[in-house]
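BUG: 3D viewer hangs when loading the predicted structure for this chain

Environment: internal workstation, default settings.
Expected: structure renders.
Actual: progress bar stalls at 90%.

Input used:
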Amino acid sequence: MNYRRLLLLAMLAFSAPSLHAAEKSGEGMIERQSPYSTQATIERAEQLILQKGLKIFARIDHSAAAASIGQTLAPTQLLIFGNAQGGTPLMQCAQSIGIDLPLKLLVWEDKQNRVWLAYNDPAWIAARHHANDCPAVAGMSTMLNALTCLLYTSDAADEEDSVDLGGRRII
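Structure tokens produced before the viewer hung:
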């Protein structure tokens, strides 16, 4: 990772609370409100995941699946993604973590027409598998936080090494 990317990730991690209109965390899950539609959010996430060198294993459209059986469900899509470079160190701490990998990112629209994205907190995953002291957790947490923060910037999905933080572009 080059210096510019490391600096960008650090700045995103420390400025994350000011970038999000709404954020909430449940038991083991981090949820953030998206300013975009469900479709735009999932597409931006997919593009950013690929730009970061991660593999997308599946994209599941839960609302389309519901429609296929004559049911309705608000827009809800799931991305399953990751890579061995990130997952292997976690599994070396506790091999049972494999049940929680690859990573998942859920995007849905709630009853108030707000769009949310959520992912499992890597610290919660580690704790669930009695691997609280796993050194790989911090890196995965930083990566997921940075990835979801990039979704909020105007051009982040189009520019690999730059991000707009409150009107200031870091390149």
